[in-house]
Design goal:
Length: about 300
């Protein structure tokens, strides 16, 4: 299989610390890759190496199947990026700012209108950037990154500092890129909730190491449900369940069981009722993806 992004044992060492440690990224074409990790995990360092802005201490980066080391300029022509907050000329309009970039990347003027429309800034095109909200500035940054029609777009925390509606806007904007234009997207974040509903593949990095990389569905499957029984006597119910052969945990005024099959739940409830217990509530609790992500990275953070 050919990957748009592939790294092999990618490592970056600062002094004694390995900020990125043997990372193996695999991103097929047309994916939206959510690159997740807590602060200091190594996301920006990895992205800088993907963009040839920083040299790896060891390991390699292949983009479009080619080694970045040997084909830097040709490869980077096919990549658009937004790393950290982009800087603009505040007294110039959005259009004028884009024009400055257009001259460098050398694309037809008509392309500016296209990208402004794509990020829904067409109505603000002639407004000065100094009056722009953070969300508008980020969208302008994406417009600039898309000017030269890249096949790969790499965004480092583009939703940082955006309010919920700004995040939703960004999500809508990014979601359409693979389908409409065949663009593969890498988007980093320290919050899973920000890339959930948008990412098709997820990579989780913690302390420089990739600790999870799979489809978002695979991650959801880990989100196992549990059943909470609110009962009159949790301790006695817990005991009874153990006798019945069902593993259970006491949680405040309820008892939690891991089973999810309807029939099993029904037999357990029937058994408890026959034993004379009063059951007030039978509730299903799903762990959120965010919780799973936190659990994945928690252990690493404590060290
Ligand atoms: N130029 C540098 N020199 C020394 N150490 C660095 C340098 N750049 C990053 N680091 C260290 O590498 C580690 C990873 O940093 P990095 O910026 O890649 O993390 P991040 O995942 O992007 O975090 P954040 O969510 O805060 O942006 C941190 O411990 C950081 O202090
Ligand atoms: Mg960062």
């Amino acid at each position: 299989m050919e990957y748009i992004v592939e790294t092999n044992q990618l490592t970056k060492q600062f002094g004694k610390e390995k900020a990125v440690d043997g990372v193996e990224i695999r991103i097929p074409k047309g994916e939206i890759y959510g690159f997740l990790g807590p602060n200091g995990a190594g996301k920006t360092t990895t992205i800088r190496m993907l963009l040839g802005l920083m040299r790896p201490s060891s390991g390699s980066v292949h983009l479009f199947g080619k080694d970045l080391k040997n084909n830097r300029i040709a490869i980077l022509k096919r990549v658009g990026s937004l790393v950290e907050n982009p800087s603009y000329y505040p007294h110039l309009t959005a259009y004028e700012n884009l024009e400055a970039i257009r001259k460098i990347v050398d694309v037809p003027r008509a392309r500016m209108k296209e990208v402004l429309k794509l990020v829904r800034l067409q109505d603000a095109a002639n407004k000065k950037v100094k009056g722009f909200s953070l969300g508008m500035k980020q969208r302008l940054g994406i417009a600039a990154a898309l000017l030269h029609q890249p096949e790969l777009l790499i965004l480092d925390e583009p939703t940082n500092g955006l309010d919920p509606s700004g995040i939703i806007e960004m999500r809508k904007l990014i979601k359409q890129l693979p389908e409409k234009y065949g663009i593969t997207v890498v988007i980093s974040s320290h919050l899973l909730s920000e890339v959930d509903q948008m990412a098709t593949t997820v990579g989780v990095i913690s302390k420089g190491k990739m600790i999870f990389q799979d489809s978002i569905e695979a991650m959801r499957r880990i989100a196992q449900a549990s059943i909470h029984l609110r009962v009159n006597d949790p301790k006695a119910v817990h005991q009874a369940l153990l006798v019945y052969g069902q593993k259970a945990d006491i949680k405040e005024n309820s008892v939690a069981i891991q089973t999810t099959a309807d029939e099993e739940v029904a037999s357990i409830v029937q058994y408890l009722v026959e034993q004379g217990f009063a059951i007030y509530r039978v509730e299903e609790e799903k762990r959120s993806l965010e919780n799973i992500f936190l659990e994945m990275t928690k252990e690493e953070q404590i060290r």
